[in-house]
Amino acid sequence: PDNELKLTINGKQFQLDADPNMPILWAVRDMLGLTGTKYGCGAGLCGACTIHIDGKPARACLTSLKQVQGKQVTTIEGLKADELINAWSEHKVPQCGYCQSGQLMSAAALLSQNRQPNESDIDAAMSGNICRCGTYTRIKAAILSVSA
Ligand code: FES
């Protein structure tokens, strides 16, 4: 069919019969069952849906399936960042937890670009990820604890 899309997610290939204009958020959550990527605002404002496209952070709610053709998509389920994830648990970062996979995706993308981010680098990289519980101080401490 015309709408056969090829996706590479967490290193695996998928073929989906879907609208190419559909946000990838719905493909990963509803069609592939990867529910770690969260729906917050649906409008690019909160960061809960952050994924990586070719290693760079992106909003899954604003990224269409056709935009990721031929690209490598990573969701929280495929994130390889054990040290960072351990720091999240050591610093007891999550409160309600809803925004935290997006927070981790943004933090991991920052560290892959910059192994030694300072506080202002962290503020800049994390400013698009909103947390209603206000876990920002612990997020910063966790990122600083793994900065090389
Ligand atoms: Fe995508 Fe809020 S759900 S930025």
Automatic annotation (TrEMBL):
It comes from the Bacteria. Residues 3-79 form the 2Fe-2S ferredoxin-type domain. One of its GO terms (molecular function) is metal ion binding. Signal peptide: none annotated. Pfam families: Fer2, Fer2_2. CDD domains: fer2. Keywords: 2Fe-2S, Iron, Iron-sulfur, Metal-binding, Oxidoreductase, Ubiquinone. InterPro entries: 2Fe-2S-bd, 2Fe-2S-bd_dom_sf, 2Fe-2S_ferredoxin-like_sf, 2Fe-2S_ferredoxin-type, 2Fe2S_fd_BS, Beta-grasp_dom_sf, Diverse_Oxidoreductases. This is (2Fe-2S)-binding protein. It comes from Shewanella hanedai. The lineage of its organism: Bacteria, Pseudomonadati, Pseudomonadota, Gammaproteobacteria, Alteromonadales.
